[in-house]
Structure formats: structure tokens, C-alpha cells
Amino acid sequence: AKEDLKKKKNIEATVVPNVFDFLAPLWVQDDYNKDFRQSVGLTEDDIYILQGTRVCERKGIELAIDVIAKLNSPENRQVLKEKGICGRPFTDNSRIVLLMAGMLEAEEYPDKLKQKAKALGVEVLWCNDKIAHSRSVNEKG
Length: 141
Description:
Elements: H1 2-9, H2 36-40, E1 47-51, H3 62-71, H4 74-83, E2 96-100, H5 108-120, E3 123-126
Parallel strand pairs: 1-2, 2-3
Helix pairs in contact: 3-5
């Protein structure tokens, strides 16, 4: 596609794959991201589920809301308190939050998601203004 665009329209393009690189090193906390939790409204005790996709209906984000609602059930919270999660403690004060980081593609769908989350008691934090495809700093941090 890149070569065709150059040949037919004389436009230089960068191909961005639509996949996650599972062979890349694991992410670690460093000076760039050390205040991430605070910047999006999370505490150290909170667990967040990152929805890193574009926000559009075909992604089925409602399912993530359903999963978090289940995780937040009293019986599942008790299991998390007893066992922890991902090597972290889970306390009575821990929140399980859906962190929406992707680009919004339409107004109606995010409104549907907000309504569903509210009905199920799921907290959603919208942080797409703080996250980009690569590291950078802007006026919003």
C-alpha cells in the first residue's frame, strides 16, 4: 500500500500496523510514566482495565463493562482481597476502573457506554487526551 500510494499519488506514507507487538519488552515504570495513575485519577490501590482500542461499536466495549461489573461483585472482591491481583494487594478501598484510552469515533456510542456503565455501577475514566501512540508531552501532560 505504501509503495502504491507513492507511485500513484506521489505521497510518502508511514505504515502503522494494527496489532500489538507481543515480542517487545514488557513496559516498566520510569520517569516518563511514573505519575500516570495520578494523572488519570487512579490511586496505587486501584486496578484498571485498559481499553486501548478506538471507541467504536464494532469493538464491543460493552463486554468490558460487563466483565468489570462481575469483578466488582461482593464475592469476587472478596476473592481479590484474599489473593490479590497481579502481585498487588487488593483492599476495601481498591476500585476496579475501566480506563478508556482510545480515540472516539462517534458521539452516540460513548454515550451508550456511559449509560451502561452507570447502570451497572462501573467507573469509567476517559483519558484519551493523555495517551498517544508514542511518548510525547503536550499542554495536557
